[in-house]
Amino acid sequence: MNQRLVLLGPPASGKGTQSARISAAFGIPATSTGAILRDELARATPRGLEAATHTRRGALVPDGLVMELVGDWIATRADRFLFDGFPRTVAQAEQLDLLLEQLGSRLDAVLLLDLAPEEIRRRMLGRLVCSVCGKLVNIGRHVASEAETCPQCGGVLARREDDNEEVLRRRLEVYEEKTAPLIPYYQVRGVLHRLDSAAGEEAVFACVSRVVEGGAI
Fold first, then answer.
1. What DSSP state is assigned to residue 13?
2. Residue 96 sits in which domain range?
3. CA distances from residue 74 to 60, 128, 133 in whole angstroms, order as listed
4. For position 200, which CATH number holds?
5. Which DSSP category does 139 fall into?
6. Exposure of 103 by Cβ count < 10 A (0-12 exposed, 13-18 middle, 19+ buried)?
7. Residues 108-133: what's their mean pLDDT?
8. Given 106, 141, 160, 170, which residue is catalytic?
9. Which helix (H) or strand (E) holds 109?
10. Residue 115 Cα distances to 9, 14, 121, angstroms
11. CA–CA separation, 40 vs 23, rounded Å?
C-alpha cells in the first residue's frame, strides 16, 4: 500500500474532503499546516505563539518555522501520513524530502486533484458554510439554494466573506506562481498521480483508493 501521501490541488478542488475520507477509510493520520498551527496555538506553545505573530498581521509563517512544526508532527508518523495542501512550494518540497530522508522514509504518492479555472470559480462562488457546525456545502451539489439549511445539522447557511471574485483571483495567482511548479517537481520523481476533481467526490475517492492500495488509476 501507498501510505505516505501528499494531496495537491488548486482552491476548491476537494482536498479537505478527500483527506478526511482517506484518513477514515485507511486509518492514515492526516493533517495540514493550518491544523498543526491551530493545535500549537491552542496549546500556547512557544512556536505556536510565534506563528500567531505572523498570521495576525496577515503575513506568511516563515518556512523554517513551518518545517520545524511539520518535523515534530511527522517524527512519530514517518511510516504513515497524509499532508493536505502541503508542501505549498518547491522549497518546502525539497525540505520535506530531506526531512523524510533523515527519518529513513520517503513519499509514496502525490495525489493532484486537478480542476479547470472555470470549475474552481463555480465551486468557490457557490460555496456556503454552516453557522452551527461549520460544514462547507455547495449550491447545486449539496443544496439547491442559499435559502436551504445545512444538510448535516439544519443550521443556517451563509457565504464566507473570502469567497468572492477578488479573493479567488488572488488565490489562483498564488497557486499558479507558488504551488503549480510542484507538479513537474513530483512528476519527474515518478510519484505524481493526476486525478480529475470535476468527476465528483465519489469518483475521485475511488481513484484515490486505488492509488492508496497500490494499483493504477
1. S
2. 4-116+178-212
3. 21, 33, 29
4. 3.40.50.300
5. B
6. middle
7. 92
8. 160
9. strand 109-114
10. 8, 10, 10
11. 21
Positive or negative: CA dihedral 171, 176, 180, 181: negative
Q: What is the pLDDT of residue 206?
A: 97
Q: Is 166 within the bounds of a domain? A: no
Three cell numbers, residue 193: 498521480
pTM for this structure?
Answer: 0.85
Concerning whether 4 is annotated as a catalytic residue, the answer is: no
160 in catalytic set? yes
Check if the beta carbon of residue 172 is closer than 8 Å to that of residue 115: no
Residue found under cell 439547491: 144
3-state SS string for 74-85: HCCCCCCEEEEC
Among residues 4, 21, 88, 123, the one annotated as catalytic is 88
pLDDT at 187 over 90: yes
- Phi/psi zone of residue 12: left (φ > 0), alpha (ψ -120 to 50 degrees), beta? left
Based on the residue annotation, tell me whether 171 is a catalytic residue of this protein.
Answer: yes
**How far from chain centre, in Å, is Cα 120?**
15
Q: Residue 103's pLDDT is what?
A: 94
Rounded-to-integer distance, Cα 70 and Cα 31, Å: 10
In the structure grid, which three cell numbers stand for residue 53, read together?
Answer: 505573530
Q: Interior CA angle at 94 toward 65 and 8, to 5°?
A: 90
Does residue 178 have an active-site annotation? no
What pLDDT score was predicted for residue 164?
Answer: 81
Q: Name the domain count of the chain.
A: 1
Residue 168 lies in a domain: no
Number of residues written out for the chain: 217
Identify the active-site residue in 38, 47, 77, 171.
171
